[in-house]
Amino acid sequence: MTAVLEISGLRKTYRGRKGVRNALDGFDMVVEAGQVHGFLGPNGSGKTTTLRTLLGLIKPNEGRMSILGREVPKHLPEVAREVGAIVESPQFFGNFTAETTLSLLADAGGVNRNRVYSVLDLVGLRDRSKERVKTYSLGMKQRLAVASALLKEPKLLILDEPANGLDPGGIREMRTLMRDLSAAGMTVLLSSHILGEIQLICDSVTIISAGKRVTSGSVAEVLARHKSGAVKVRLEPGVDMMGAAQILRAAGAAVTLDTDHFTVGNASNPAQITKLLAQQEIYVTELTPVAADLEDVFLELTGTAPVEGQNRQVDETAMSAAGKGGWGQ
Ligand SMILES: Nc1ncnc2c1ncn2[C@@H]1O[C@H](COP(=O)(O)OP(=O)(O)OP(=O)(O)O)[C@@H](O)[C@H]1O
Known about the structure:
Layout (H helix, E strand, L loop, with lengths): L2 E14 L2 E14 L3 E5 L6 H8 L7 E6 L2 E3 L3 H4 L3 E4 L11 H11 L5 H9 L15 H13 L5 E5 L7 H16 L3 E5 L3 H7 L2 E6 L2 E7 H7 L5 E5 L5 H10 L4 E3 L4 E3 L6 H9 L4 E6 L4 H9 L27
Parallel strand pairs: 3-8, 3-9, 6-7, 7-8
Antiparallel strand pairs: 1-2, 1-4, 4-5, 9-10, 11-13, 11-14, 12-13
The site of adenosine-5'-triphosphate (ATP) has 12 residues, from strand 1, strand 2 and helix 1.
């Protein structure tokens, strides 16, 4: 695969009254062509600083960045035409229609006006394009913003929190739009806090915490690296679940009872569960690994609160998933 975007060792410090703050502390990221790539991190972890630095709006202290194989900010004037970005919510004139707004932007950017109708189709606003923007919902305004970024047919689209403030319907529309853009061959970099959405939309992710990458890879890889290590166990109907749990607990298992099943939280060797229970003539009817989701991974790697010094600072992208340890090995 070809990298559309590469960042390595990016460092940005801000100086304020309270001293120096490392907004980016040696941050790395790679986005491959044709992917919808999720950029995740807690508040203040450095997402906006990264995106603004990429677009030449902020000067970094250190690090290398390239877009479409060309180093930026040096070659930004050449690559700018191939990058569409919404990093801050654009403001539109409420009295203009979407059609007028996009036509003016097309003229200003030297883009053929025919493109206006293609982007209106792409974002699903064609039917409403002759209505004033002030009558639009927030979701429609966000889609108009995406349409404006698509005018110049970019190869890379960068969106900072596109689903911010949207209701579930608006989020669903944005999801469909991202899928359509990806199907049309565009690479999309998407920062978001909405982890369930990222898991649904994105092919790959980078998670940042306190200015450093803590993990990256395809969504499937990242989740696989974080197998929860737990298994769900179901027994034959009528079997004493408490008794079975006791047997396993006595052997060191962390058992949580539910109404019709129990979960062993540290089952590194699930066969041990069936063996121990079978020795007491208790038979297992179901033994299923409990999958981690992106939210579990995010919370594990970044901590719930983005407090400096409390986040994990290890980039586990290159680390093996082995060696987690657990009961029953
Ligand atoms: N202009 C600035 N001056 C001083 N500190 C700044 C400035 N901009 C950002 N910071 C600090 O840099 C760090 C990273 O901020 P940034 O806005 O990049 O994070 P973020 O991940 O985009 O957060 P959010 O999700 O809340 O938008 C934070 O500690 C923030 O307070």
